Inverse folding.
């Protein structure tokens, strides 16, 4: 009989063990809501958007100078580059000189050489500022959100221009490409 009681006691202990491990536990939780996420923007623009520089019937020694405002209407800092594409005579665009400066006090033919920092100087055909490939490149310009800068462009036909440049016409298109500076 003693063995029966020991067996019953053992069964009782085993049967009661799960109940013994599932006692009540106090719990609590806290939520953290209103986690809002939004993206920024890159928005480059220029003014004017067309016909920055035009001069017809150019003669050796002629030049034309005009300012362009480059703006960042986005919410992120951006870096930008400029490229030039030519339609018409590349013989003429190779013979024309493009000079671009930043920080010019007065952007005019007469005052162009007075101050400012050279951003580009070379042929109109190869006109470029920085490099539009992704990532930071030498010569890229940066603009903070809601900021702008004025660049002064001057195109000239050198006094050394040859007769091969007579009666030619070329049209230049300046393209400004921008990307965010953060995380690139």
């Amino acid at each position: 009989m003693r063995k029966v009681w020991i067996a019953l006691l053992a069964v009782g202990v085993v049967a009661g063990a799960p109940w013994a491990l599932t006692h009540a536990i106090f719990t609590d939780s806290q939520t953290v809501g209103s986690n809002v996420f939004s993206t920024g923007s890159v928005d480059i623009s220029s003014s004017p958007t067309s016909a920055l520089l035009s001069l017809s019937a150019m003669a050796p020694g002629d030049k034309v100078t005009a300012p362009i405002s480059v703006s960042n209407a986005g919410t992120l800092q951006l870096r930008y580059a400029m490229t030039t594409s030519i339609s018409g005579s590349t013989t003429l665009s190779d013979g024309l000189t493009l000079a671009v400066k930043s920080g010019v006090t007065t952007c005019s033919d007469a005052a162009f050489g007075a101050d400012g920092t050279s951003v580009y100087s070379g042929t109109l055909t190869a006109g470029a500022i920085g490099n539009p490939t992704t990532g930071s490149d030498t010569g890229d310009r940066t603009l903070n959100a809601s900021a702008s800068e004025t660049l002064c462009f001057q195109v000239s036909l050198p006094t050394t221009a040859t007769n091969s440049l007579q009666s030619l016409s070329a049209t230049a298109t300046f393209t400004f490409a921008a990307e965010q500076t953060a995380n690139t």
In short: The mean pLDDT is 91. The radius of gyration is 36 Å.
